[in-house]
Design brief:
By secondary structure, the chain is of the alpha+beta class. About 30% of the residues lie in helices and about 25% in strands. Strands 1, 2, 3, 4, 5, 6, 7, 14 and 15 form a 9-stranded mixed β-sheet that branches. A 4-stranded antiparallel β-sheet has the order 10-9-11-12. Helix 3 crosses helix 10, helix 4 crosses helix 5 and helix 6 crosses helix 7. It is globular, with a radius of gyration of 22 Å.
Length: about 350
């Protein structure tokens, strides 16, 4: 699907390739490991392997089940990644002899419990863009600077939708009852892809509305947006390019409770100050819904399903953004931190103003 990009510039024609040399991920754990306990924590560096590939290799070496391993999140295959996984410390001695060309155990420690999905603060990324001339360098730096100021849309990346990008269609069919999938893991993956597709569609629509509000006077655009004139006027005054609407559900950032905004002007300023963010719907049961004008838009992308729903940040704020231009090689090196659940490839897609796959 083609997503709305909130930065207003033409696409930048450079080379971005996910590979172990040009795409490096370093996991940031949610907490410090205690240094004691029955679980052995392995800090792994892997290349050209998905997380599950690495776990299977280790499980085969230890002659144990993959279920004995714990991990906080799945890491890209086409990258050099550093992440932590846990296994019982009874395997410590045999692991000292472990050797694999694509996996290196960098260090070990102990912890009281197994690492579980979500036990992750975020990730540090290093990305190298190639064939970057001086004109492209300037455009990339400008886009990078705007992301440092405003943040970026928290779209799900293309990885969420499978190799052909169409896993969400199977999820839709399962939800509608026209497709049955017996494999529980596959079924879950397809339904999650459908939830992600609906969220991306909603976020793209809200960015489109925001850009129209920025570009036109309220009197010229309010009927086209199907919003009251006063609502569009209030949105027009907001400092952030993503416009907040009456009834939006917010969350404190980087974590906190979900709440309905009362004061549109005050909350939009706090959003600009990176203190809180609007949220979008992941369709499903037991989830808070937006209200008023925000709900009028959100309901177009809401589907009843047995899956539990959730709210997801509409925007996130990358940190520690640095860029380094290597003029002799025409390379641009970018480094930054993203909170868990967000995609570095979407930051690159925003900068380059084109879809990646």
């Amino acid at each position: 699907m083609k997503l709305q990009r909130y930065l207003n510039h033409s696409s930048i024609d450079v080379v971005f390739k996910q590979s172990k040399d040009d795409f490096v991920v370093n996991e940031v754990p949610l907490y410090e490991f205690s240094g004691e306990g029955e679980h052995l924590i392995l800090k792994l560096r892997k290349k050209d392997l998905a997380t599950w590939d690495a776990i299977e290799i280790l499980a085969n070496y230890l002659k144990c089940s993959t279920r004995e391993f714990g991990y906080a999140g799945l890491k890209d295959k086409n990258a050099m990644t550093v992440q932590h996984i846990s296994v019982h410390r009874k395997y410590e001695e045999i692991l000292k002899e472990f050797s694999h060309e694509n996996i290196k155990i960098l260090e070990t420690t102990y912890h009281n419990n197994k690492i579980k999905i979500g036990h992750l603060k975020g990730n540090n990324f290093f990305i190298r863009l190639k064939r970057v001339g001086l004109v492209e360098k300037r455009k990339i730096e400008e886009a990078f600077s705007k992301i440092a100021t405003f943040g970026m849309p928290n779209y799900f990346g293309f990885q969420r939708f499978g190799i052909d990008g169409e896993n969400y269609k199977k999820g839709k069919a399962i939800v509608e009852g026209t497709l049955k999938e017996r494999n529980r893991n596959l079924k879950q993956m397809f339904i999650n892809a459908y939830q992600s597709y609906l969220f991306n569609s909603w976020l793209s629509k809200r960015i489109e509305i925001s850009k129209l509000i920025e570009a036109f006077e309220p009197k010229e655009i309010y009927t086209k947006l199907n919003l009251p004139l006063e609502e569009v006027k209030r949105a027009k005054k907001q400092p952030h390019p993503f416009k907040i609407l009456t009834g939006d559900l917010f969350s404190h950032y980087p974590f906190g409770k979900i709440f309905i905004i009362d004061d549109l002007e005050a909350e939009s300023q706090k959003f600009f100050d990176k203190d809180r963010v609007p949220t979008g719907l992941l369709s499903g049961k037991r989830v808070k819904k937006s209200e008023n004008f925000a709900q009028e838009i959100e309901k177009e992308f809401e589907v009843d399903m047995n899956e539990d729903g959730a709210r997801r940040f509409a925007f996130i704020f990358p940190e520690n953004l640095e860029s380094n231009y290597k003029e002799d090689k025409n390379h641009m090196e970018l480094s930054f931190y993203l909170p868990k659940g967000s995609y570095a490839t979407e930051l690159i897609a925003e900068i380059l103003h084109k879809e990646l796959s």
